[in-house]
Every structure is written in structure tokens, then in C-alpha cells.
Write a structure and sequence with these properties.
With 189 residues, the chain is of the alpha+beta class. The protein folds into two domains: 1-93; 100-187, Alpha-Beta Plaits. 58% of the residues lie in helices and 23% in strands.
Length: 189
């Protein structure tokens, strides 16, 4: 049937279309109103379908944008949770913080055990921001044996406390001496 229709359609001559009796066609449509009703229904269906398709397309784009926004927010939340876990691990793994007085007492005890004499200790300089406090001080030590100074320095470096050596310089005369610059760290939050 469709082959026959296309065959007839291909045989139509454009010049024949000029000979269409418009008045006869109009009269025929007036007599057969069901054809007009069917044409109107098809036209209305096409218009409604086009409108619904445009509305669906608009809604679909909005939903895709919302999905992208939610995916970005989920990523931010996941990153934040990961950062919180890393921060907690850092806090757990961070060396134990001690007060400056406790640190000085521990250094004094270690110096006595290792036969090292603390000859000077500078006043503590404090630095602080919202995350960390740093106590900075200079210390001079002497001993009759170089190994005692080395052992004392290693005791500071291997301390479980949040302490680091910033500078170290030594000298040898009648006794062995060292100047040590240290910093003690404390996390605030």
C-alpha cells in the first residue's frame, strides 16, 4: 500500500497542483466536517506534543543542572569528611605537647643524667596564631666529654614531645660546649 502511495505521489506534476479547484475543495470540506475535525485534532495534537516536548526539554535541562550541583556538593562533603579524618589522624599522631616549664624540667633532668651542664637559657619567645603555638629559646651547654653533648642532643631529637632543634653549633676548648636553638610546638585546635 505504501509503495502504491509513493508511486502515485511521485507521478504528481506541479503544474497539476495549479489546477486544483479550491472552491470545490472548500465545498467538499464543508460537506464533510469530520475531515476538518480530524485535521484540527491532528494539528492540535502536533501543537500540544511540541509544547510538551519543549517543556520536557526545559525540565530535563533543569534536572541535569540540579544533578550536577548535587554531585558537586556531594564531592565537597566527601572532601571535607576526608580532610576531617586526615586532621584527626594528624592530631592523634602529632607528638605530645608539653608546657615550656615541663620541657625545661625534662631538659634539666636529661642534662643531669648525661653529665651535661646547662650554662644559659634565654627567655622564651612565644609565637602564636590560630592553629599553633611555638616557644623558641636558646640554650648553652657544656660537658667534659663530647659524647655527652651528642647524647644530650639526641635525647632532645628523640623526645616524644613536640620539640625540634632549629640550630646547633659546638666548640671544643678545655670543655666541650654547644649552643642549641630549640622550638616547642603545641597545636591549638
Amino acid at each position: 500500500m505504501s509503495e502504491n502511495f509513493f508511486k502515485k505521489l511521485s507521478q504528481i506534476n506541479v503544474k497539476d497542483l495549479k489546477n486544483i479547484n479550491v472552491q470545490g475543495l472548500t465545498a467538499n470540506l464543508k460537506n464533510n466536517r469530520h475531515i476538518l475535525i480530524n485535521i484540527a485534532i491532528v494539528g492540535l495534537t502536533l501543537v500540544v506534543t511540541l509544547y510538551l516536548w519543549q517543556a520536557y526539554k526545559k525540565d530535563s535541562l533543569e534536572i541535569k543542572k540540579q544533578i550536577q550541583d548535587i554531585a558537586e556538593k556531594v564531592k565537597v562533603v566527601e572532601d571535607q569528611e576526608k580532610n576531617v579524618k586526615e586532621y584527626q589522624k594528624l592530631r592523634e599522631d602529632f607528638p605530645k605537647a608539653v608546657s615550656t616549664d615541663q620541657l625545661i624540667n625534662q631538659l634539666s633532668e636529661s642534662a643531669v643524667k648525661l653529665n651535661v651542664q646547662m650554662t644559659s637559657l634565654s627567655p622564651v619567645q612565644e609565637f602564636s596564631d590560630e592553629y599553633i603555638e611555638i616557644s623558641h629559646f636558646d640554650m648553652s651547654v657544656v660537658s667534659t666529654d663530647y659524647q655527652n653533648i651528642v647524647d644530650f642532643t639526641q635525647a632532645i631529637e628523640n623526645s616524644p614531645n613536640a620539640v625540634r632543634l632549629k640550630e646547633w653549633s659546638g666548640q671544643m676548648q678545655n670543655t666541650v660546649g654547644a649552643k642549641i636553638v630549640m622550638e616547642a610546638l603545641r597545636l591549638k585546635k
